[in-house]
Amino acid sequence: MELFVEKDSIVREIWGKSDTVLFIFAGASAEFALNKAVDWLYFTGKLPSDPLGRLFSTVKYAKSIVFSPKDDANASIDVLRKIHGKVEQNRGTQIPDWAYRDVLFMLIHYSIASYELLETKLTYDEKEEVYNVFHRVGTRMGLSELPLNYKDWLPIRESHLKENLKQSKYTFDLFKQYKKHLGVLRYKVLIEAQKLVVPKHVKKELYLNDFSLLTIVIPIYKFSRNIKIDKFFKNILLPAKYKTEIKELDIHPG
Question: Domain ER-bound oxygenase mpaB/mpaB'/Rubber oxygenase catalytic, which positions (predicted)?
């Protein structure tokens, strides 16, 4: 049975840990809010009405691709494309191709940044492997103009950040929704987490400084994993109604 991502792949290591995945989506939540195509997320109303539920459903989809046999993963990608196609049909216009690429680029960047923050620096080959996996996802979705390798992707990623991110009314509303659904303390943690993984251009657009209070906390959290109390911290940081979803983040299917 051919797997979409090999069992010894660094991508499985990254997406098999709940804390890494949570940092991936902390970063993506900041970048999403600035994307010039963020209005698409408001068209269905799902993200602003339940940002955490949307997060966990997206995680579930990503994990179903990373940890599945190749045929099943491709089928999941095809379904994802059909879902977006239906939204496009309902709105009567197409999601720009660059917007699809932006989402793919987020997954690449934050997979690498989050793992390096919480675990260890990745080798160039490992970064190339991360890029290759998501390149295959993008290719299956029919995206064009995808760089062939990680090295060629880096300057394209930088140009996407400068061209496609800008503050809008949706930016401020989305952060308002984050705060509403997380509460003041958890929202503060989200902001501090974003500071650690978002690119400089995102920080500039969101007026985020370089210092994060989590710089002090992360070494303590890493130690907590060694003595198996990290779940306690996760339960504190996320609302109780998402306990099942939090637990499932550490389940490695396939």
Answer: 46-149
Domains of the chain: total: 1
Mean pLDDT of 64-76: 94
Q: Position 117: which residue type?
A: L
Q: How confident is the model at residue 50 (pLDDT cuts 50, 70, 90)?
A: confident
Nearest to 202 by CA among 245, 166, 246: 166
Q: Which domain holds residue 172?
A: 10-248
Q: Do the domain assignments include residue 2?
A: no
In a domain, 253, yes or no: no
Reported pTM: 0.92
